[in-house]
Amino acid sequence: xxxxxxxxxxxxxxxxxxxxxxxxxxxxxxxxxxxxxxxxxxxxxxxxxxxxxxxxxxxxxxxxxxxxxxxxxxxxxxxxxxxxxxxxxxxxxxxxxxxxxxxxxxxxxxxxxxxx
Length: 116
Fold this sequence. Notes:
By secondary structure, this protein is mainly α.
């Protein structure tokens, strides 16, 4: 399932936190409803300065793990509603192409590794 939503994954916040953020909550909810074998892909929609903060209500806290779970659940439920209403295509109507593209980095990686 592909979920596309325009919001930075910075709900949990903090420089010392490693988190799947609300995207992880979306994934977990969809897998609970559709099965653990379901592949969930997330596409970050077109966004510039897009976040979950309600700037007109400074008293409302829209950060942290509690908000991450709430936001992820709401988004997953919307995605599941779309799937429930959709008419699936038969597998024979789905086609794809793939090809490998190789390039020579010209040593760029070596230059950047000096800064790491």
